[in-house]
Amino acid sequence: MGVLSNFFSYFSSDLAIDLGTANTLVYVRGKGIVIREPSMVAVDVRTGKIQAVGSEAKNMLGKTPANIVAIRPMKDGVIADFDTTEKMLEFFIKKTKKSGQFLKPKIVIGIPSEITQVERRAVRDAALRAKASEVYLVEQAMASAIGVDLPITEPGGNMIVDIGGGTTDVAVISLSGIVISKSVRTASNEMDESIIQYLKKKYNLLIGEKTAEMIKIQIGSAYPLEQPLEMEIKGRDLAIGIPRTITVSDTEIREALEGVVQVLVETVKNTLEKTPPELSADIVDRGIIISGGGALLKNLDKRLREETSLPIFIADDPLSAVVLGAGKILDNIELLEKIGNAVL
């Protein structure tokens, strides 16, 4: 039997996928994470042909001729462009295969908790059309909790806040189930957009998505920093149409991000208010774990600590939490059965 299972495992590689708005991560059973690329596709609009996928497509952002468009097929954690998502998935699945592999893979995909049945079906159909044999959809908060090694099977409250590119998922988990969850379509991409709008309004300066993301990473924060930071920014002056350079401070960018940060804080507070008292007591002891790319925003943990008076911990590898959790589910069929209510 061992020889036969080895034979089959050689010819099929089961996958766990974090199909994110900003990035797609792919975990191959037995190998770990093998793909970590932007969820982006460059398409020639005249021919409909795909020119590039992932990092290569992101490098083209804002620099393409009129006939080539860089598309983000995922928006707010769901599929906005079905055909392009399917092609992107197919590209990533193909990239994981060894030559000679012919069996279709089983795939576990992390999805936001509050998406509609139609949106869920779209994710499943895209994966099936991209050559998957079976597709399991698991709520991102549950996958993230498993990915950061929270004791989800125990009778105690575990709270996770997963801030992705398009959605923020907050959940309280106990006895392998989600007791209460909230998903909002406000997350890291919204932060970038807030920076773009702030600079446009305050300085009449237009910047692109990549520049906004760089500003967020380098000087963005949710709570005052110990050491002030500044950054030189290049953009286009909207009044005279020529390039201009300005210097902005961390205080200004914090002001730009305040609206988004406030939504995240309120979502956490609302979830805590609805949590049963016995589980609330556990969360007071255990604290809250933050994962996802948004967890890397400077001092977000301090801001949440200030607002909730609870211990806040950032996951060791916040960007990989969902895909690592989905990978553990893939490796452990018993776990898949235990968390049945979070698998769709």
Describe this structure in words.
- The protein is α+β, with helices and mostly antiparallel strands.
- The protein folds into 3 domains: 162 residues, Nucleotidyltransferase, domain 5, CATH 3.30.420; 86 residues, ATPase, nucleotide binding domain (Nucleotidyltransferase, domain 5, 2-Layer Sandwich), CATH 3.30.420.40; 70 residues, Actin, Chain A, domain 4, CATH 3.90.640.10.
- 40% of the residues lie in helices and 26% in strands.
- A 5-stranded mixed β-sheet has the order 3-2-1-9-10, with helices on both faces. A 5-stranded mixed β-sheet has the order 13-12-11-17-18, with helices on both faces. Strands 5-4-6 form a 3-stranded antiparallel β-sheet.
- α3 packs across α4, α5 packs across α11 and α6 packs across α7.
- The longest helix has 24 residues.
- The radius of gyration is 21 Å and the shape is flat.
- The N terminus is likely disordered.
